[in-house]
Amino acid sequence: xxxxxxxxxxxxxxxxTVELEAEFGKIRKMLDTANGEAEAHVILKHEHSxxxxxxxxxxxxxxxxxxxxxxxxxxAIHAAIxxxxxxxxxxxxxxxxxxxxxxx
Length: 104
Hints:
Layout: E1 2-8, H1 14-23, H2 25-31, E2 39-47, E3 50-59, E4 62-70, H3 73-99
Parallel strand pairs: 1-2
Antiparallel strand pairs: 2-3, 3-4
Helix pairs in contact: 2-3
């Protein structure tokens, strides 16, 4: 999985990006296939007293988006990644269930 980070009015240290790479591990296992690699774009914003995190994952010609807002930057990032993970699981179960044909 290719992950790019964009910080608006803030930045991340290399140790923080390593921690986020580990957080994307579960999503990476689900989305990376022999057909291709998924791409994720993490956008971080700081406005007034809140931090906003937006995670966009491009996968199979679709875009999965998770947004979160919190006073703590990493709480917002983890919440956004959790939302994306839940959407990926939902999409994979829908695809799996649609392919199965009952035996008659």
